[in-house]
Specification:
2 domains; single chain; Ancillary SecYEG translocon subunit; membrane; mainly alpha; 225 residues; Serine Threonine Protein Phosphatase 5, Tetratricopeptide repeat; TPR-like_helical_dom_sf
Length: 225
């Protein structure tokens, strides 16, 4: 199911695609997964209860999101956290946790963002979201100066649609560590994986490194004799 997000260039477009996919197919998936149990404990009862639960979670998420977005720049995340706590078994709690982590980053509360994303690593059962969670977690770890951990987190990202972004973050980590050689290799790998849709910031990062290397190579050696 990774293909439902690979056609979208930004992470927000990917999240929106997943939300729409859940809306269109969520109930069908749940029903299909339990069809083999129908003869054991009553298909109709189970079907009705599952669909009702999914619909309630969907409506609750929509209500929470509308209320949150209406608050604008002064948005309070209390209701978001309350939704997560009250719907921990729902896929919509995962989307709410991503929203809470995003708001924490916007407020530069990177510890809170890391807490949310680390919990998501353990709790998320929807595989197509894993690379998105790991990518955002790695970026937060970079902000916290946890460079070695960020590199470890990035090794978890193997999905083709996320390789370019993962390599770009890896290059940033190496750059912050003063390792320009590995940074250049990582940025080149990111460009190669971009399939022609190169992030302008990535191109600028790579060009700056290339220019610095060129200047260093042509810099005259001072005669100290």
């Amino acid at each position: 199911m990774v293909d439902i997000i690979e056609g979208y260039e930004t992470e927000e477009q990917q999240v929106d695609a997943i939300k729409q996919w859940w809306k269109d197919n969520g109930n069908t998936l749940v029903i299909g997964a339990v069809v083999g149990l129908a003869g054991l404990w009553g298909w109709r009862f189970y079907n009705d209860s599952v669909v009702e639960g999914q619909e309630k979670a969907s409506q609750a998420y929509s209500d929470m999101l509308v209320q949150f977005e209406a608050q604008g720049a002064d948005a309070d995340t209390t209701n978001v956290q309350a939704f997560i706590d009250g719907n921990s078994s729902s896929n919509y709690a995962v989307l709410a946790s991503l929203l809470l982590a995003k708001e924490a980053v916007a407020k530069q509360d990177f510890e809170l963002a890391k807490t949310q994303l680390t919990q998501l690593q353990d709790q998320n059962k929807y595989a197509p979201l894993n690379p998105l969670i790991n990518l955002r977690l790695a970026r937060v770890e970079v902000e916290l100066g946890e460079y070695a951990q960020a590199l470890t987190t990035l090794t978890m990202i193997t999905e083709e649609g996320f390789i370019a972004k993962a390599e770009q973050v890896k290059g940033t980590v190496y750059l912050k560590q003063g390792d320009t050689n590995n940074a250049r290799v990582a940025f080149q790998s990111a460009i190669d994986a971009s399939n022609g849709r190169i992030d302008p910031i990535l191109q600028l990062q790579f060009d700056d490194l290339a220019l610095a290397a060129q200047n260093e190579a042509t810099e005259p050696v001072l005669d100290v004799n």
